[in-house]
Amino acid sequence: MNSPPSLPSLPARPIRPLPDQLISQIAAGEVVERPSAVVKELLENALDAGATQIMVKLEQGGVKRIAIIDNGGGIPADQLPLALARHATSKIASLADLESVASLGFRGEALASIASVAQLNIVSRTADSAHAWEIAGVPDARPAPSSGAVGTTVDVQDLYFNTPARRKFLKSEQTEFGHCAEVVRRIALSRPDVSFSLSHNGKTIDHWNASDEAKRSAQVLGTEFAQARVPLDEGSGVLRLHGFVGLPTAARNRADSQYFYVNGRFVRDKLLTHAVRAAYEDVLHGDRYPSYVLSLDLDPSLVDVNVHPAKIEVRFRDSRAIHQFVFHAVSRALAQTSATAGGALPAPVAAGHSSLAWRTEPQQTSFSSQFVTPPGVAQNMEQYGALFGGIPTYDTASIGVSSFPHTAQNAPSTDEEFPLGFALAQLHGIYVLAQNSKGLVLVDMHAAHERILYEQLKNALDEDAMQVQPLLIPVTFHADAVEVGTAEESRDTLRALGFDIAAMSPTTLAVRSIPALLKTADAQSLARDVLRDVREFGGSRVLVERRNELLGTLACHTAVRANRSLTIPEMNALLRQMEATERADQCNHGRPTWIQLALADLDRLFLRGQ
What we know:
By secondary structure, the protein is an alpha+beta fold. It folds into four domains: 20-208, Histidine kinase-like ATPase, C-terminal domain (Heat Shock Protein 90, 2-Layer Sandwich); 213-335, Ribosomal Protein S5, domain 2 (2-Layer Sandwich), CATH 3.30.230; 344-448 and 564-605, formyl-coa transferase, domain 3; 466-558, MutL, C-terminal domain, regulatory subdomain (Ribosomal Protein S8, Chain: A, domain 1), CATH 3.30.1370. It is built from 20 helices and 26 strands. The strands form seven sheets. It has an eight-stranded mixed beta sheet, covered by helices on one side. Strands 9-10-13-11-12 form a five-stranded mixed beta sheet, sandwiched between helices. Mean pLDDT is 80; it is low at 347-413.
């Protein structure tokens, strides 16, 4: 066996202070990891200076040159040398300031660290100065008169020119530029009130004028996110969470569209990421990642931003309360449907004349004069359908496509009452076709019913009110030893779920009762699947850690299957229950349960008016 090589012993040397230049270069190893870190530090300084317009100019991915030009308050001439000194800043003056940091930068070492590994030059002018002043980032430099507008220009050239070993660890020009551009995007998202311009090698890449949160997030993240997002703005005491969460239809294969800010500072915090991900559990499964832009505002004294050299991690004084607040706020936003939120409707937009792409649009509040409630609907709201259990149905069994008149009296209806409209027909035993004020609604009946059952099961379990359906004749089936053992060991868990499964012999199980919500399911198949999930997820822990997956399995068993013929009243009952169910716009796997084809979309498909 080969022993590991021994490290060489260091010669004995006296303890002595390090030179200032070496101290700054060591600090630069933490602060200036790559060109994008320089961009971040300089942009934060510009925002702290009150800038409303910022230009970012890069050359060769930021390695050759990084220039940040802002219209902020500027730096007085006599303070320019101090701006380049280590641990010199105007942003904090005491321990109390450090414990409630309200600025983006505060350590006072960014400029000194950058100057130690690059050629740095600053030109700055305050509003009361007759002209600008310039200083180079070299020891003992003194300001000299210069020309320039009010604000500050920081020009960084030849990064790592004096530390070539560090430069070798940089990636390609395009990769380094990509990191710089991402930093600009992050900061631009946090400050929509500031205009940003980004150029690379003399070519303008991005330009965003000052706007609001909605427009800036659409500009930065693109139309796909803008067309499938839900606004969020909740407050509780000193906490406020605002921004946008993407619908499951906007989920991505990578976690590259997740932006979380704490008091305006972009952070990667495991606590916050977990809270958001947990809120998506009911609507997004598998390896997909949600998209979101969220900002958490709170008292600065309740969060420590000084726990990471790059200030990208934070620590909360009451982390559990923060987690719960974020989780519930995002959950409530995602739980809103088109029926309850009065906001966005999932709708495809005709792209050209042959393909469809996703969008959302504001929900209208009243029906047009060309659409009215089918006869008999208003008079029969008290009746209930047998198929969906407690869902309003209507005495409209004979209603067909031809039964929808163009005009009628005494039959008012609004989108607020019936946003999904009323059923017209069933397509290939899979889709429900309905008409609302906007045009045509297409519903995946299995996905929609699966979500309805899932939410009903979840509510029943949460309220400890799972209704049980005893079987008149117990269903017996042959079981292996593992299934029998699981039934005996997890009896309490199964009963909490509404199941009574007993061992009749070492090889036989009997199903005596099942959840009433699943009474139409095949008892044997249902029992086998619940036993499998309970065994796989860990017995009693399944109700805490893997409850959603288990309830999803149960809901899938009973949801109406493809090729199941539904009557018009049954289809209308499904639509009404969708409108009354949280998260009904997506199935348990994050896929849409319905889409909207507006009349304008249909007109484009058929070239009407062209």
